[in-house]
Amino acid sequence: MRVEFDEDTCIGMYQCVAEWDAFEEDKARGKAVLEGSDETEDGVFVREVPEDEELDAKFAARTCPVDAITIYDDDGEQLIP
């Protein structure tokens, strides 16, 4: 499973932080940060989700009020949102 995080879309509600510890608050910038991720050319942050954290990652994506977090399965099919 893979997560993609569009930091530009993030509005800093930090609901993802409460759901998955891979997200942290950056209060200085007013954005969440996806730890352990790599930035793509289009400014999206990507990382693999460990099996034991998949449920937390899904909850983080579902709670994001602006859909800045997208979850994909191992075949590249979009699961959330």
Automatic annotation (TrEMBL):
GO molecular function annotations of the record: iron-sulfur cluster binding; metal ion binding
Classification via InterPro entries: Fe-S_cluster_ET (IPR051269)
Keywords for this protein: Electron transport, Iron, Iron-sulfur, Metal-binding, Transport
Top-rank taxon, per record: Archaea
Keyword Electron transport in record: yes
Identification of the protein by name: Ferredoxin
